[in-house]
Write a structure and sequence with these properties.
Helix content is about 35%, strand content about 25%. The protein is globular. InterPro entries: Thioredoxin, Thioredoxin-like_sf, Thioredoxin_CS, Thioredoxin_domain.
Amino acid sequence: MATDAHGGSNGAAPNAPVHVDGEAHLEELVDDHDVVLVDFYADWCGPCKMLEPVLEDLAGKTDAVIAKVDVDAHQLLAGQFGVRGVPTLVLFADGEQVEQHTGALPGDRLEQLLERYTN
């Protein structure tokens, strides 16, 4: 019996951040996974660069998907979420947006935030 790419159960979270290539891709990630943390970032943003290794570490040890959206490449998508500064972190749980934070959060705070929704 053949199964589609989405399998019969929730797919395992990738062990590295996923670079979002558009609105449909983001919707698919949110639909396919229980918890998704989206990092709206820019390559020229200093705090975004400081946050990157923290997110890479989290991606390897959490059940949540860490998704990254380049605001310069995806301005309309950033606008849909009211992103006015970078980094902006948007958290989805069970397909719904549950949190939004502007600015780089420390790793332990991000970990606590994700634990509230992944446990």
